[in-house]
Recover the amino acids of this structure.
């Protein structure tokens, strides 16, 4: 079923038809939120808020076939609302690093390797979150949501060549920032 068909079903009273829309768009909404706010823990909350706002505002959608871009617009507004709020300075427990003692628990032969892998991932994500917004957006949508250049271009209102340029620049920035022995960015093309 197309997005438009599912939207029309939801509007006719079959609210369960919103589930396939959520499954179809949740990863992209999460990528948009993470790119905007730069924090994974907050992005998850904002993605949930976006999906709820989308369901509530569905009657205002003018073109049912444009549900995805419309929902991503709601995600951007939810992120902007969060960025303006004073509550954004709060740090949740899930954002705090795991305890060192838990990572190095006795009886786990590969605990040190796992700890090192987690450190590399944390370092990589910290550097991704420091990227300028246009670069972070394309990187998150490309890797988080497996979007094509064309899909990203359509969503951001730029050309596929611009997406390619931003993605290349983002990778270069990350390579320069990461030390030789620390995390690496996997190239997909």
């Amino acid at each position: 079923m197309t997005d438009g068909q599912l939207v029309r079903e939801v509007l006719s009273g079959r609210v369960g038809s919103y589930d396939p829309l959520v499954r179809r768009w949740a990863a992209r909404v999460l990528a948009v939120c993470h790119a905007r706010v730069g924090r994974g823990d907050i992005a998850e909350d904002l993605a949930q808020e976006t999906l709820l706002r989308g369901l509530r505002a569905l009657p205002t959608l003018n073109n049912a076939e444009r549900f995805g871009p419309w929902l991503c617009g709601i995600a951007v507004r939810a992120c902007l609302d969060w960025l303006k709020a004073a509550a954004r300075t709060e740090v949740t427990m899930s954002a705090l690093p795991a305890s060192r003692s838990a990572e190095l628990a006795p009886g786990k032969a590969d605990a040190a390797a796992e700890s090192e892998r987690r450190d590399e991932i944390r370092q990589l994500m910290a550097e991704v979150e420091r990227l300028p917004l246009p670069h972070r957006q394309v990187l998150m949508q490309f890797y988080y949501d497996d979007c094509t250049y064309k899909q990203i271009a359509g969503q951001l209102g730029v050309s596929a060549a611009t997406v390619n340029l931003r993605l290349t620049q983002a990778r270069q920035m990350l390579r320069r920032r990461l030390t030789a022995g620390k995390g690496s960015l996997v190239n997909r093309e």
